[in-house]
Amino acid sequence: MIKNAAASLMMRLHHHLPRAAPPPTYRRRHVLPLLLPRLRAPASAPVPPIAAAAAAMSTAAEQAVADQKRALRSEVRRALKALSPDQRASEDLAIQTTILNSSWFKASKQLCAYISCAQLREVDTSKILAEVLSPNPGQEEQAKDLYVPRVEDKNRNMRMLKITTMDDLVKNSMNILEPSPVDASGNDCEDVLSASSPVDLLLLPGQAFDRTGRRLGRGGG
Asked: What is the superkingdom listed in this entry's lineage (predicted)?
């Protein structure tokens, strides 16, 4: 299990300039030699050995965690690749059924979810999205607002935009479905940050999770 690296030790040195002395009463040629040493900022103190050691330990710990994450990602990718199509479909269905039958899903009103991508071997969300976008007759009280991610730029900044139908989605440069800024009716898609109510459920993809819910991403930031 991946452990968090110890936090690095931060030390600050505070320097305070003394107050300026009252104007001297003697002749001007004596003023500069007396005042100049008092106006100079104190020299920077050397970094204490304990701070340098702590910084080095922090860097080493962070590198060790990064190496563990890379190794675990490789292991998980191999395991997912080894799954047969039938086994994947069975497990995807089991996960989606568990979510759809849960009390917390049924009670949610504002939902953020992802559009699953087969080539990334993400857990399928198509059944969940279909349930949200096309609720069964008589279940109007369980209607939900659905927001899905759109990558905005090369830095992978994202927005969560509201969709009301799968027709609101378009393929991006990586052939992954995401919402268009304008929906199928020609209206601007609502950003979740502008929503009148807070999100109460978020379905988040990941490379791996442990039994306590801690997440390992794909390393993209």
From this structure: Eukaryota
At residue 2, the pLDDT reads 36
Q: How many CB atoms lie within 10 A of CB 110?
A: 18
Are 139 and 130 within 8 A, CB to CB? Answer: no
Per the structure block, which two tokens stand in for 7?
């936090």
What phi and psi values does residue 136 have, to the nearest 5 degrees? -70, 150
Pick the CATH number of 83-205 from 3.40.50.620, 2.60.40.10, 3.40.50.10420, 3.30.450.30: 3.40.50.10420
What does the chain come to in residues? 221
Q: What is the pLDDT of residues 97-155, one digit of tens each?
A: 999 999 999 999 999 999 999 888 999 999 999 999 987 676 666 789 999 999 887 77
How is residue 18 written in tokens?
């003394």
Query: Which own/partner contact pairs does 1-4 have at CB distance under 8 Å and 24+ positions apart?
Result: 1/210, 1/214, 2/65, 2/68, 2/69, 2/72, 2/214, 2/216, 3/65, 4/65
Pairing relationship of beta strands 158-163 and 208-209 according to DSSP bridges: unpaired
